[in-house]
Design a protein that fits this description.
This protein has a single domain, classed as Arginase, Chain A, CATH 3.40.800. The chain is built from eleven helices and eight strands. The chain has helices spanning about 25-40, 55-60, 65-75, 95-115, 145-155, 170-175, 225-240, 265-285, 305-315, 325-335, 365-375, and strands at about 5-10, 45-50, 120-125, 160-165, 185-190, 210-215, 245-250, 290. Strands 2-1-3-8-7-4-5-6 form an eight-stranded parallel beta sheet, sandwiched between helices. Strand 4 (about 160-165), helix 6 and strand 5 (about 185-190) form a beta-alpha-beta unit. Helix 1 (about 25-40) packs across helix 9 and helix 7 packs parallel to helix 11. The chain starts with a strand and ends in a 10-residue tail after the last helix. Pathway: Ketone degradation; acetoin degradation. Keywords: Acetoin catabolism. This is Acetoin utilization protein AcuC.
């Protein structure tokens, strides 16, 4: 399906490091790239480096006072709680500006490659820092790299950009930055804000004439319910919106093993979502697809396998779920984490779901979440909210 895929990587991307006890452990992306290399996935893509985002580039979505504050913290390591640096979620560390700007630069490099036609798809697994706000760090995120990529695309003349966020946490920073911009359609599928950070992402948050879409799923939702919700909301809206570029945030913390959230997806269900987004990129955005990482805190069993599947899907060479992970990678896992690595690229699930063609069940909390979203935004796009 794909003609060319570029993966943006630099070993220095692992310098985005809040410390040994922080959930956002940089070893998760190190292990991802090592697994993708061992399974031959990186042989199917163009692997390129990146430069840090400049201050002018960062200022397209962040205030210059905020950037200066991050630079001061970066030089001194001294917290500045006025901009959210020095909290438990966002500890201050020397070099935080440089590390954050490099991640932002990687997503900008992905956007440039796709917009200029150098690659059809581009992936930055180190990115996806979707909680960063214009003037504050939030939720492990300092600079909002997906928002920077979108802003860059708009500045180049893109008339419509769609952003689909499948992280278990609401993509609040990206929504905030583009909330009143009808050129950007943001769609976020996440655990209900009643039970999970950041406490936003209700269906009633609809932006400029339906430009913000939120599917708030109940805790405990698994593969079948999540995929039912995805297919009931995302494809109809993308087909109607017809973006020039599709940007996706691929947080894999919706997995049942993730320690910070309460959804129950399997690796196989997540893989089905990657395939669906790939198809939608070709169907609705001329194949132009930029995928970034995001959350994911089960750093051995989930993140490396999930994002290796993502890269393989983007490359047009999906991995057979029965594929062994490889002994060299397993040794690396034991050396770097002391944990027991998974043996294959699957959780052994066969995710299936039913669509809304047979109607919906008002007693089912997942169906209630789906209908709440469709009622809130479908009419604003000229779509019938009822199945």
């Amino acid at each position: 399906m794909s003609r060319s895929t570029r993966v943006i990587w630099d070993d220095a991307l692992t310098s985005y490091d809040f410390g040994p006890s922080h959930p956002l452990a940089p070893v998760r992306v190190e292990l991802t790239m090592a697994l993708a290399r061992e399974l031959g996935v990186l042989d199917k893509v163009e692997l390129t480096g990146c430069a840090p985002a400049t201050e002018d580039e960062l200022a397209t979505v962040h205030g210059r006072d905020y950037i200066e504050a991050v630079k001061r913290v970066s030089a001194s390591g001294v917290p500045d709680l006025s901009v959210g640096l020095g909290t438990t979620d966002n500890p201050a560390f020397k070099g935080v500006h440089e590390a954050s700007a490099l991640i932002a630069g990687a997503s900008l490099a992905a956007a440039r490659a796709v917009w200029r036609g150098e690659a059809e798809h581009a992936v930055n697994v180190a990115g996806g820092l979707h909680h960063a706000m214009p003037s504050a760090a939030s939720g492990f995120c300092v600079y909002n790299d997906p928002a920077l990529a979108i802003a860059w695309l708009l500045a180049q003349g893109a008339g419509k950009v769609a952003y689909v966020d499948v992280d278990v946490h609401h993509g609040d920073g990206v929504q905030t930055i583009f909330y009143d911009d009808p050129r950007v359609l943001t769609i976020s599928l996440h655990e209900s804000p009643r039970t999970l950070f950041p406490g936003t992402g209700f269906p009633q948050e609809t932006g400029a004439d339906g430009s913000a879409v939120n599917v708030a799923l109940p805790a405990g939702c698994g593969d079948a319910g999540w995929l039912r919700a995805f297919h009931a909301v995302v494809p109809p809206l993308l087909r109607e919106f017809q973006p020039e570029v599709l940007v996706t945030q691929q947080g894999c913390d919706s997995h049942a093993l993730d320690p910070l959230a309460n959804l129950m997806l399997s690796l196989d269900g997540q893989r089905a979502a990657y395939a669906a987004l790939h198809r939608l990129a070709h169907e609705t955005a001329g194949g132009r697809w930029i995928a970034v990482g995001g959350g994911g805190y089960e750093i051995v069993q989930v993140v490396p396998r999930a994002w290796t599947h993502l890269i393989a899907e983007a490359a047009g060479h999906p991995i057979d779920p029965a594929t062994p992970t490889g002994e060299q990678w397993r040794r690396l896992v034991r050396e770097r984490t002391g944990e027991t690595p998974p043996l294959t690229m699957s959780d052994g699930r066969r995710p299936e779901f039913s669509d809304l063609s047979g109607g919906y069940d008002p007693a089912d909390p997942i169906d209630r979440a789906i209908i709440a979203t469709r009622n809130a935004v479908f009419p604003l796009h000229g779509l019938d909210p009822m199945p």
